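To illustrate the input format used throughout this study, we show a single complete record. The first block contains the structure-token representation of the backbone; no residue identities are included at this stage. The design step must infer an amino acid for every position from geometry alone.
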């Protein structure tokens, strides 16, 4: 007998895993007597205690039966043949039809922090020490009940701080009671889709638009109706007249993702009117409105109409960092209790210490200071990117206006140019996000979504320089 290590940390773990595997695959016949622990230890040249630990565990788990006075025997288990190919060996066989359909639209996330990663803030400039100090302080002070299951919709101090911030800077009409803290905007979209729409209902989405919200709607069994976005933002007048009336309308009014345009006042009014006419809920995703460089943001849609059913969705992923997993919903008073209950059941509340630290971070003015600093940094990074790309723009590469946000959009002439550039980028280690992947309909436009916020000057210069050379070579064939 040889003892394969099988990656176990201890010898007894390796012996346990090996014997269990042999029992599960039938290599050790059910009912067969096992050698004594002394003999096993001798044959394997390991300590008897090591053998006893492994055997005791097998007995405790029911793989081996101990008959006092007679010894140890392999249990007679009705186990499926372990090593034969089964449904667990390929994801295809394991996934439900709904799971497969959802995954067909879930791109593989590139988690390497590449130069043009869209939507990634300046992680290098996050005030970590300040944040750590607050976290430590609130960890020490945390009341015991914060360690238990919660159902308050988040820490009160955070809801209050957020409410002041949203009222002042985004003209959102709210009281702290209307806020539900979530683990990011994504969780907010999922709750909305599950609680306010039924499978088969339709959701109007922006085309091109944000894949995260689309995935949440798909997972809830909703039919997506892509609504074209032009220079004024989403245009409800262009929804086909025979389209099913929507239960939900999703929009990024402050800074359309990924086109980067602001929803005009005329379109805001048109959308509010559409939502009212169809009795639909408007989902206002205000993910990065803090980063405007030329003009202050327009007031929120939520604050524009008292009558319309608008849910305001916010996130700390862009203003702080995505791994924080904190976001929020501003709900009409009638919905707060049902949402809180469903959220506590489906997702569980948590991170109360982090929430308290965040409330403190906001109250002390650190939040406003960080945003103001990031606004300057991002504006500078965008300027650097534009300068680096200047040789290409001089020859016809068209870039979006960039009045706001964390990325620029480069339009390309053809789908084949987009594809070739993305492939060349992958080979050269410069990952590029194709604009076409933000479309769900059959008329995707070619382009590149170039995030700049998360990269310092040197990285932008290096990656931008590569892009200019690649674009010139592919376009002119030189
Ligand atoms: C349009 C849009 N909404 C929301 C989010 C933030 O989502 P979360 O709070 O789940 O990180 C993002 C992040 O990429 C986004 O691009």
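Output of the design step:
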């Amino acid at each position: 007998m040889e003892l394969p290590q099988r990656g176990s940390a201890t010898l007894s773990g390796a012996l346990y895993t090996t014997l269990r595997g042999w029992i599960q695959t039938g290599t050790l016949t059910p009912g067969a007597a096992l050698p004594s622990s002394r003999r096993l230890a001798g044959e394997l040249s390991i300590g008897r205690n090591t053998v006893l630990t492994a055997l005791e565990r097998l007995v405790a788990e029911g793989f081996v039966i101990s008959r006092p006075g007679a010894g140890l025997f392999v249990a007679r288990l009705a186990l499926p043949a372990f090593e034969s190919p089964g449904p667990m060996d390929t994801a295809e066989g394991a996934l439900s039809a709904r799971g497969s359909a959802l995954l067909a639209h879930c791109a593989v996330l590139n988690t390497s922090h590449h130069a043009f990663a869209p939507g990634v803030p300046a992680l290098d400039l996050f005030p970590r020490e300040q944040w750590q100090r607050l976290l430590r302080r609130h960890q020490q002070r945390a009341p015991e009940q914060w360690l238990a299951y919660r159902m308050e919709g988040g820490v009160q101090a955070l809801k209050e701080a957020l409410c002041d911030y949203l009222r002042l800077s985004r003209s959102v009409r709210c009281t702290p009671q209307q806020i539900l803290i979530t683990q990011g905007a994504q969780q907010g979209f999922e709750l909305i889709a599950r609680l306010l729409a039924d499978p088969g209902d339709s959701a109007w989405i922006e085309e091109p638009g944000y894949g995260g919200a689309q995935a949440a709607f798909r997972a809830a069994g909703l039919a997506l109706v892509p609504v074209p976005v032009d220079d004024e933002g989403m245009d409800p007048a262009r929804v086909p007249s025979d389209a099913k009336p929507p239960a939900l309308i999703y929009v990024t009014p402050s800074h359309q993702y990924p086109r980067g345009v602001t929803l005009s006042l005329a379109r805001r009014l048109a959308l509010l009117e559409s939502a009212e006419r169809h009795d639909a809920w408007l989902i206002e995703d205000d993910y990065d409105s803090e980063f405007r460089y030329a003009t202050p943001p327009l007031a929120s849609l939520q604050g524009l109409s008292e009558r319309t059913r608008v849910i305001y969705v916010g996130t700390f992923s862009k203003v702080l960092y995505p791994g924080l997993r904190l976001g929020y919903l501003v709900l009409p008073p009638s919905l707060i209790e049902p949402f809180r209950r469903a959220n506590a059941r489906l997702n569980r509340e948590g991170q109360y210490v982090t929430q308290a630290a965040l409330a403190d971070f906001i109250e002390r003015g650190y939040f406003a200071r960080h945003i103001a600093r990031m606004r300057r940094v991002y504006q500078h990074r965008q300027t650097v990117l534009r300068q680096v790309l200047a040789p290409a723009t001089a020859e016809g590469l068209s870039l979006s206006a960039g009045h706001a946000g964390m990325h620029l959009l480069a339009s390309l002439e053809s789908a084949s140019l987009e594809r070739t550039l993305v492939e060349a980028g992958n080979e050269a280690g410069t990952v590029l996000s194709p604009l076409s992947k933000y479309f769900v309909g059959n008329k995707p436009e070619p382009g590149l979504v170039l995030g700049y916020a998360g990269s310092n000057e040197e990285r932008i210069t290096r990656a931008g320089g590569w892009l200019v050379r690649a674009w010139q070579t592919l376009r002119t064939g030189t």
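Structural context for interpreting the output: The CA atoms of residues 207 and 238 lie 11 Å apart. The chain has 15 helices and 14 strands.
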